[in-house]
Recover the amino acids of this structure.
DNA sequence: TGCAACAGTTGCACCCTAGCAAGTATTGGA
DNA sequence: TCCAATACTTGCTAGGGTGCAACTGTTGCA
């Protein structure tokens, strides 16, 4: 009876903790770029260099909106923008080192805080966490890219 | 050796799944209010009616910024704003029904999608998830309010 | 009573996102 | 070769968020 409820409660509690990790990991990045800008960096980090059109589609924004966003990211040296080699009307955006670092750092910070949390557990407990998390991740539908992007992944 | 790493990996994977739930649960709310506005609603839902000053402190924004934000929330009937009964220079903000519903709906949707995921597991597996999640939540430092607020909780 | 501290609001300036419409350059096919 | 489709940019408009400084009303103490 209460079995479902209590696992749901526990999962919600854990989700708050995990959310905290994500949020903190984002905090640093958001001092340098806005959330929409960061979302663009995340897409580039995940999918590699992109044409403007493809990027706009993935982000779900109007091409003209992306033009300005990219403009700012270029100004901040987070991405590069150059004409495609084979097609001069296409523009390819790629992560610049600073942009790469921004995303990588956030990822690393997130992973570190998860690891730090796990470190407080005994090996047995850690194993229990691993199994629980694995089961949950397997049971969950893979969240779509657009979903994750809402929160900057 | 790899024990820590694999639990960390599993946890990161689960965190992506949970993030997906959170993001989807927020999607509906963000069609009606902006993220900063939603953050205010979350604080009010969690801590009850607040003075402007207290709310601004919690949200970490300038009082004048909060004035406009609240202005918009009042216009949308998401909150009420009235002078404190005992002190006429203080202004108390409280959730209006629509605001309450907005937050409650997001919470409910999130909980539903977690429950739906758990439903795909056997009772034994569910129990393993419960235990893992509980252990993780207990080991994690309680994420501070400001952290959670970054992502709209 | 009067004045300083307090709680919010308003004016101002600035930046960012966002979409639409029009414009430009490029490409590819008729 | 020429014209339409494509890919992106630019001009325009609008709405938010944000902080600072100045202002208003209120309170509380000397």
């Amino acid at each position: 009876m209460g079995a479902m409820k209590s696992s749901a409660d526990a999962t919600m509690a854990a989700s708050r903790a995990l959310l905290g990790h994500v949020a903190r990991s984002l905090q640093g990045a958001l001092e340098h770029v806005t959330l929409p800008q960061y979302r663009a960096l995340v897409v580039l980090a995940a999918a590699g260099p992109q044409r403007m059109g493809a990027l706009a589609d993935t982000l779900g924004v109007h091409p003209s909106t992306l033009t300005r966003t990219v403009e700012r990211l270029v100004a901040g040296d987070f991405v590069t923008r150059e004409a495609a080699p084979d097609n001069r009307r296409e523009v390819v955006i790629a992560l610049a080192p600073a942009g790469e670092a921004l995303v990588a750092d956030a990822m690393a910070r997130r992973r570190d805080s998860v690891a730090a949390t796990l470190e407080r557990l005994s090996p047995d407990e850690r194993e229990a966490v691993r199994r629980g998390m694995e089961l949950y991740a397997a049971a969950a539908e893979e969240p779509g890219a657009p979903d994750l992007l809402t929160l900057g992944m």
